[in-house]
Amino acid sequence: MPRGQSTLLTELKSLVAAIEVSARANDSVMLKAHLKELVAWARQLILRVPLSSSTLAVENAGLKRRLRASKISFDSMISAYKAILDAFETFRGTVDLVQQTKRLEELPATLDAIRRLRTLHTLHVVLDHDLFEQRIPKGVGRASAAMIRERLKQFSPSPHAPRLFLGEVRHIEKPGFFLGLDEDPPSGSCFIFALGHKYVHSKIIGVVAAYDPNPRRYAPDKATDFLSHFCDILACTLITALEHAQLEELTVRDGLTGVNNRTYLERHAGRILDFAARKKLPVHLLFIDLNGFKAVNDTLGHEAGDAILVAVARALQAMIRKYDILVRLGGDEFVILLPDTDKHMARAFVTRLRQTLASLDVGQVCSLDTDLRISASVGLSRHQPPQSLESLIKAADQNMYEDKTHAKEGPAGDHAAFIPKTAPPPARTAHKYD
After folding, report:
1. 48 has a pLDDT exceeding 80
2. Mutual angle of helices 225-252 and 54-99, in 10-degree steps
3. Nearest to 371, CA basis, from 299, 314, 263
4. I want to staple 209 with a disulfide (CB 3.0 to 4.6 A). Which of 116, 192, 297, 318 is the partner?
5. What are the CA-CA distances from residue 418 to residues 276, 316, 372 (Å)?
6. What is d(CA 168, CA 184) in angstroms, rounded to the nearest whole number?
7. What distance, in Å, lies between the first and last C-alpha atoms of the chain?
8. Cα(164)–Cα(152) distance, integer angstroms
9. pLDDT tens, residue by residue, 203-224
10. DSSP states along 313-333
11. Greatest distance between any 2 Cα atoms in the chain
């Protein structure tokens, strides 16, 4: 073979070797460059060396085999690279969904979105009821701190905290508790991770678990770096949402009685009034003022007055429906907004309200020896669209003063003030109304 051709073949062999090195190193940039150079050299070889040469045929076949092997390696590397990108995008999407959750009531929708994104059969969270109290939304599991600790004993001590379990459900005691299932699944696999408190070391605020009927979906030998990071982010998000809820409650709750305040009414009443106007549903508002309350403070003391306000607030709260709004405006004044309530229902409610307040035992409430009982003046107004909330309250307030004036002019002991119990109070009627 002429010297030029031999040199050309030697250079081609070096180039193929470089391709193999690039492929093993997963260096896609250099691999592409070497492949392009190889194609160019192959074309030169074909032009300069006669096709009848047996040596060239052997060399060419070898080069083709190595080229195919390099291409297979390159394609495999590209596929792995794409898989990594897909996994990263899914991970980022999952984290985004969690971090977009600002309120605890959004948690069920977030979990469902994550379940669909990651094609999970079941994704469930159980939260510490003692920590989150009544703020845990429907669709999210709840259990006392003691119950969670008792259920987690089967995994302790865990060598992969917060990883508690990864494997077949048959190895778990009561898996339905973690998975939110009424019955324990007979087969399949699951993962269970602890959710830690971001401020309190080693405190568990709940657990997150996923289930799949495939017994190999969550095998014990699988890497769990993503799950650990996901659990950390989810736990931090839940505590942040809890703090947000607690802070928000401070701004809309009356500090003494625990019922909502005027801020809450102004925040939510507009939506209720607009909906009622569109659906042509009646809405009534009650303005409630306790009679003679200043005299009670002066006679029994402010501590007794506060105790009475708390008792009144609890009694009123027990009467209303879930979608009614009770607020304390301040002092001894309360407002109740009654959506989808006509005139007859509203008047019946006022009658029951008077009876309920009259039935409260002031002596028992205040832990004092007194024969006083509670009464209130009540103003009732119906919303007339597009009447504003402020106007609706003023109308009820005006009607309340008329009620108070009428009561003062009526027989003593009617419902005008805190008065001696000259007769047993009326029988207490049912609080809820339809």
Report:
1. no
2. 20
3. 299
4. 192
5. 36, 17, 6
6. 12
7. 105
8. 8
9. 999 999 999 999 999 988 887 7
10. HHHHHHHS-TTSEEEEEETTE
11. 132
